[in-house]
Amino acid sequence: MPSGRIWWEDQTYRERRVLLHIPKGYDFTRPGVMVIFFHGHRATLTRDVRDRQLVPAQVAASGINAVLVAPQFAFNASDSSAGKFWEAGAFGRFVAEAGGKLAELHGNPAAAESFANMPIVLVAYSGGYLAAAWCLSVGGVEDRVRGVLLLDAVYGELDKFVSWIADHRETFFVSAYTDSTQKQNMELRTLLAEHEIPSATVLIKDKWKRGVTFLATNPEIQHEDFVTEAWADYPVKDLLRRLDEFRR
User: Fold this and answer.
1) Largest pairwise CA distance in the chain
2) What is the pLDDT of residues 28-83, one digit of tens each?
3) What is the CATH T-level fold of the domain 9-246, as seen in this structure?
4) Which of 123, 135, 154, 153 is nearest to 237 (CA)?
5) Residue ranges of domains in the chain
6) What sign does the CA torsion over 72, 216, 136, 102 have?
7) What are the two backbone dihedrals, phi and then psi, of residue 88, each rounded to the nearest 5 degrees?
8) 104 Cβ partners below 8 Å, 6+ apart?
9) Cα–Cα nearest to 192, from 216, 209, 168, 176
């Protein structure tokens, strides 16, 4: 690694756990959405995604009919590796398996079809951008993705994001950023303009759901806190609650 650190496989890549969450009040007979969350560097599902960033709580508090799937990538390490998601179709296989596990967790066999076909909102924070880019590019379920939310997570792979946006004009792509990724976000916006793809800088009511939005945040907001404090407190909750078509 450029830092000179060595990540031992049995310590860093041993985790195969996935955080699954079905909020109270979820109704599989109504339109729903699967929120898939990709964490950043030095994260664990329990300490960071669940307890510090409160992602399950944000999904539950959004008021929409949603479930959460959050895989563990490199365990507590500064590594953006996408793991098997670099492989063509791997994300699709992961989503299918997650749907089956959610059906088991729900306990009603009739829910299986809903979990197997529900649209996806892909949320990536920081180093989670790499897995997100490859999942959108070769994951095999690109047409199920209802939208993408990047939380200070545009560090590269701009061509993959541009390609997916260009091919999915009826979806949303929202990228919120601090100074950490401001330059890359502006580069991405320029590339989109060259492809005659417009973008906004505020979440315009209803229009944001079928377009691209870049959200600059207060300079005082820290990258480390971005999953709970961005353009709004609890940004995952804030964005999801705007998806009225999935309201419980």
Assistant:
1) 52
2) 999 999 999 999 998 999 999 999 999 999 999 999 999 999 999 888 666 757 78
3) Rossmann fold (3.40.50)
4) 123
5) 9-246
6) positive
7) -60, 130
8) none
9) 168
